[in-house]
Amino acid sequence: MALIVQKYGGSSVADVDSIKRVARRIIETKRKGNDVAVVVSAMGDTTDDLIDQAMSLNSRPPGREMDMLLTAGERISMSLLAMSIYAQGESANSFTGAQAGFMTDTKFGAAHIRAVKPDRVLKTINQGKIAIVAGFQGINSDGDSTTLGRGGSDTSAVALAAALNADVCEIYTDVDGVFTADPRIVPTARRIPSVSYESMLELAASGAKILALRCVEYARRFEMPIHVRSSFSSRPGTLILPEGVDTSSIPNVGTDTPRAAMPAPRAASNER
Ligand code: ASP
Ligand code: MG
Question: Is the whole-model pTM more than 0.90?
Answer without folding.
Answer: yes
